[in-house]
Amino acid sequence: MLFKKDKPFPMMETTRKVVQVYWPVARHRPRLTFWYIVPEICFVTRQDRVLTIRLKGMIEILAMSIFVVRIGAHVLHRGTLQRCFWDVQETLGQFVDSGHVEVQKMLEHLVSSASFVTRSYTTALLCNASLYGDIPALIAIGQYLMGADIETFPPTILEADYVLFEHQSNILVWIPVLLVSIATQYSMLTSLAANECLNWNLLHHVSCLFKMVKFEISHLGECSTSDEFKKRLVKIVTVHDAAYR
Question: Keywords for this entry (predicted)?
Answer without folding.
Answer: Receptor
